[in-house]
Amino acid sequence: MRAYFFLLLLMLLVIAILTGQSFIFTILYLLAGAYVAGSWWSQKVVSSLTYKREFVQRVFPKEVIPVRLEVQNQSLLPVVWLRVHDLLPMEISATRSFQQVVTLGPRQKLELTYILTASKRGYYPVGPVQFSSGDLLGLSSERIQEGKPDYLTVYPRVVPLTAVKLPSHSPFGTLRHNQPVYEDPTRSAGKRDYQIGDSLRRIDWKATAAVGRLQVKKFEPSIALETAIFLNLNSEEYFYRTRFDACELAIVTAASIATWVIGRKQSAGLITNGQDPLGINNQAQPIYPRKGRGHLMRVLETLARVKTSIQPAFVQLFRQERVQLSWGTTLVVVTGVVGNELFDEFFQAQRVGLDIVLFLCGEAAGQREAQRRAKRFGIPAYILWNEQDLEELRM
Amino acid sequence: MKESFEAFRVNQRHSMIFCSFLVVGMMVCFTIAFEQVGQRINPDWHGGYLPWLGGLVAIESMYSQHNARKRKGQERWIYYLSEWILIAIVLKFLLYGINNPGQILVDLPRWEEDFTTFFEGEYLVVLVLVFLVWGISSLELSDLNNLQVREDELYVDRPDLIASDREGTRQQMAERVMIFGAVMVVLTFLARMSLEGLFGDRTPVDASLVNVVIYFILALTLLSQTQFAVQRGQWLWKRTPISPQLARNWALYSLVFLAILALVAVVLPTRYTLGLLDTLSIVFNILSQIFMLLFFLITLPIIWLINWLGSLFGKPGTRENIATLPPPEFVQSPPKRIVTWWELVQSILFWLFFLAVLGFFIGYYFRQNRQIWAMVRKWPVVGWLVGVLDAIWSWFAGVNRKAVTLIQSARERLLPRRLAASTRRMIERINFRQLTPRQQVIYFYLRLVERGARHGFTRAPSQTPYQYEQVMAKSLPEVDQDLVGMAESFVEARYSLHTITTEKVGLVQAFWRRITEALRKKTSRG
Question: Which of A264, A340, B36, B210 is the least buried, fewest Cβ under 10 Å from its Cβ?
Answer without folding.
Answer: A340
